[in-house]
Amino acid sequence: MNTPQHVAIIMDGNGRWAQRRGQMRTTGHRMGVEAVREAVRSAGELGIRYLTLFAFSSENWSRPEDEVNDLMGLLKFFVRRDLAELHREGVRVRVIGNRRALKADILSLLAEAEDLTRNNSALELIIAFNYGGRDDIARAARGLVDQVARGELDPQSINEDAISNALDTAGIPDPDLIIRTSGEQRISNFLIWQAAYAEFVFLPCLWPDFGRADFEEAIRQYSCRDRRFGSVAERDLALGS
Ligand code: IPE
Ligand code: IPE
Ligand code: MG
Q1: Is the pTM of this model over 0.90?
Q2: Residue 197, SS3 per DSSP
Q3: Which SS3 state, helix, strand or coil, does residue 124 take?
Q4: Residues comprising the binding site?
Q5: GO CC annotation: what is one (predicted)?
Q6: Annotated binding site for substrate
Q7: Which residues contact 185 (CB under 8 A, 6 or more apart)?
Q8: Ligand 3 geometric centre to CA of 164 (Å)
Q9: CA pair distance 16, 22, nearest whole angstrom
Q10: Any idea which ligand is nearest the CA of 53?
């Protein structure tokens, strides 16, 4: 089976999972963290090299303050509980997103996770936290303009690669497959530049229910896709049609 090198997941549906059980949204988020654990394990076993998880969007600040605090707390809980094990398993942790609005304790935990696992290479786990695609592009543009203003960069040399290299995902290949759970079929400002040629798989299951079988189903759907990148399919070229 054709395994994607980079899978990115929009982990959606925690709130609905809880509501259907008459529970608080927080409970859904807490169960979502368990699904994260399983997804990371599955990704490694399935031979995926890069796994990006959308954990908190730059638009999620508009949720009630309590829920925002819960999501911040759960990120800390996840890193504190699982970092040593991730490191043992050879996982490299990277964080993308805008760090400006994040509190000092979160920033230092994220830095600790990145530093500890810097030389690992079994799987790269990229956590998108306070991430927005438009914010990523705006920050990249500012960085490039600063370099131009300092006379370090010729504006004529700003091409697609230069922009890719100025994004938070510099050095990470574009996602091959983007999975979204919960049945919603939208990108919600996730990797909008990087997703130019990604395949999308939308699954009906809610994120806390996402397990190994769902991951395999998404990869099965991906492996049936014909990725043409604007060209013609190889088999059609061979037929000369
Ligand atoms: C995804 O679940 C988690 C985050 C966005 C942080 P939601 O909280 O969006 O769950 P629904 O969409 O309300 O069910
Ligand atoms: C996208 O889910 C963000 C994350 C999964 C972190 P949302 O639930 O915030 O997206 P919308 O609001 O339904 O588009
Ligand atoms: Mg949602």
Answers
A1: yes
A2: coil
A3: strand
A4: 12-17, 25, 29, 57-59, 61, 63, 180, 186-188, 199
A5: cytosol
A6: 13-17, 25, 29, 57-59, 61, 63, 180, 186-188
A7: 200, 202
A8: 28
A9: 10
A10: 2
Q: Pick the atom of ligand 2 nearest to 186's CA.
A: 14
- The fold for domain 6-239 equals Undecaprenyl pyrophosphate synthetase (3.40.1180)
Is residue 189 within 6 Å of ligand 2 at its C-beta? no
Return the residue matching tokens 């000092």.
104
Q: One digit per residue, pLDDT tens: the chain, 241 residues?
A: 799 999 999 999 999 999 999 999 999 999 999 999 999 999 999 999 999 999 999 999 999 999 999 999 999 999 999 999 999 999 999 999 999 999 999 999 999 999 999 999 999 999 999 999 999 999 999 999 999 999 999 999 999 999 999 999 999 999 999 999 999 999 999 999 999 999 999 999 999 999 999 999 999 999 999 999 999 877 777 776 5
Segments making up each domain of the chain, as ranges: 6-239
Q: Is there an atom of ligand 1 within 6 Å of 182 CB?
A: yes
